[in-house]
Amino acid sequence: MPGDKYNSVWVSYSSIGDFLKCPRLYFLRNIYRNERGNKVNIITPALSLGQAVHGALEGLSQYKAEERFLIPLENSFEEEWIKISGKRGGFKNAKEESESKERGKNT
User: Fold this and answer.
1) Is the pTM of this model over 0.85?
2) Torsion of the alpha carbons at 76, 78, 46 and 13, rounded to the nearest 10
3) What separation in angstroms does the CA of 26 have from each of 32, 37, 40, 43, 51?
4) How many domains is the chain built from?
5) Residue 47 to residue 52: CA distance in whole angstroms
6) Cβ neighbours for 62, distance < 8 A, ≥ 6 positions apart
7) Which residue range is the domain that position 60 belongs to?
């Protein structure tokens, strides 16, 4: 008889792959958390783009449903982009950053 699914340990295929590559890699990607309890991740341009897009969309939840479409999303996106601009966003150069920013605006 199978055990209780709520007390079982669930491991994804990618986590198993990490462990098979290197147990330390598995620990750093899947187990380790900093002193504030957050996972640590290396920033990449794709991650930065996702962060800016999601930040802009989540900002809409602060407004009433009737007001949400009156606020230009591009303004919110620009505000979020400032937070991840340059090396903070993992961009190697200005061209890479501008390409990612255009992708975000077109999303």
Assistant:
1) no
2) -20
3) 9, 17, 13, 18, 24
4) 2
5) 9
6) none
7) 45-106
pLDDT in tens, 19-64: 999 999 999 988 899 899 888 888 999 999 999 999 999 988 888 8
**pLDDT 10s digits, 79-101:** 999 999 999 999 999 999 999 99
| Residue corresponding to tokens 């200005």 | 94
Based on the fold, state whether residues 24 and 61 are members of the same structural domain: no
Q: What is the dihedral of CA 33, 38, 43, 45, to 10 degrees?
A: 140
Q: Which two tokens stand for residue 42?
A: 């290396």
Amino acid at 95: K
Tokens of 11: 């491991």
